[in-house]
Inverse folding.
């Protein structure tokens, strides 16, 4: 009997998505990781996702086939930055985007993903929210709640999504007049302003199935087009920009997964004290979702 389960993020290569037991967004992957019953969980995604799986399901061995696949946004914040912000805003709650290290999660009050950021923030009593590390998602949350949102660091972002411009969208619309525009909340507010729909990767997949639009311009990482085309074959999907490719997600290959399964390594290790703190913040999020 198979002693491993492969979970994959929506951005990994098409052939990796094809070999996975489940493909989803960060929230769905956290929920699935918790339910895995096989001895090994192979995580096809960037480092923080594999680490998150190890934290929410500590009884399983989580394998990250390419430890150098690291989210560029997650590295923009340290626990020290959060502790300093807490001193500056003692009444604020700390909401940390899942794209962060376990050490940062451990000094946070609660975690969120792009799928539930507004819901998580609205679940808190505090009026002031320290939000880390994505400034663009922080601004999206500020627009959709009545909270005072303080982005920490002031300019944290995903270099992939932040590169998308309004001009890119206008160029694609000139090529495909009347197309619908869907974007991820990690894009800049000006891009979000010209979009018809803003959501997490899996929210995009659900939206694409129900919209009446025939052509959809996709403002997120290009790996997403694989799932969109598979689930909505009657529609045309166009990448909003050729620059929307996350090199770290593409480091996960079929060959590396097969080698990791054979070697049963490398297994993700998280310091137990840090894991305990991060688990508390992650479980609080899962209870809200
Ligand atoms: P989702 O949770 O929407 O899949 O996003 C994860 C991510 O890394 C976006 O860049
Ligand atoms: Fe991180 Fe951006 Fe890659 Fe998502 S697309 S994993 S936020 S670097």
């Amino acid at each position: 009997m198979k002693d491993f389960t492969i979970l994959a993020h929506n951005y990994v290569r098409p052939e990796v998505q094809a070999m996975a037991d489940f493909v989803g967004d960060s929230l769905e992957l956290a929920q699935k990781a918790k339910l895995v019953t096989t001895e090994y969980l192979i995580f096809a995604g960037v480092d923080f996702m594999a680490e998150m799986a190890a934290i929410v399901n500590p009884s399983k061995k989580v394998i990250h086939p390419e430890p150098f696949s690291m989210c560029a946004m997650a590295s923009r914040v340290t626990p020290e930055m959060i502790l300093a912000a807490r001193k500056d805003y003692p009444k604020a709650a700390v909401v940390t985007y899942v794209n962060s290290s376990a050490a940062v999660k451990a000094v946070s009050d609660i975690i969120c993903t792009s799928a539930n950021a507004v819901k998580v923030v609205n679940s808190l009593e505090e009026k002031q929210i320290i939000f880390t590390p994505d400034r663009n998602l922080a601004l999206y949350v500020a627009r959709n709640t009545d909270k005072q949102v303080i982005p920490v660091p002031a300019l944290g972002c995903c270099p992939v999504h932040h590169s998308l411009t309004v001009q890119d969208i206008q160029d694609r619309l000139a090529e495909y007049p009347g197309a619908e525009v869907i974007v991820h909340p990690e894009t800049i507010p000006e891009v979000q302003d010209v979009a018809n729909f803003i959501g997490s990767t899996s929210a995009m997949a659900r939206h694409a199935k129900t919209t009446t639009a025939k052509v959809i311009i996709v403002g997120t990482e290009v790996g997403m087009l694989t799932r969109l085309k598979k689930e909505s074959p009657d529609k045309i999907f166009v990448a909003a920009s050729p620059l929307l490719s996350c090199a770290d997600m593409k480091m996960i290959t079929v060959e590396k997964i097969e080698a990791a399964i054979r070697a049963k390594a490398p297994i993700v290790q998280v310091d137990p004290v840090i894991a305990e703190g991060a688990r508390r913040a992650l479980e609080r999020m899962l209870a809200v979702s």
Notes: The chain has a mean pLDDT of 98. DSSP finds 15 helices and twelve strands in the chain.
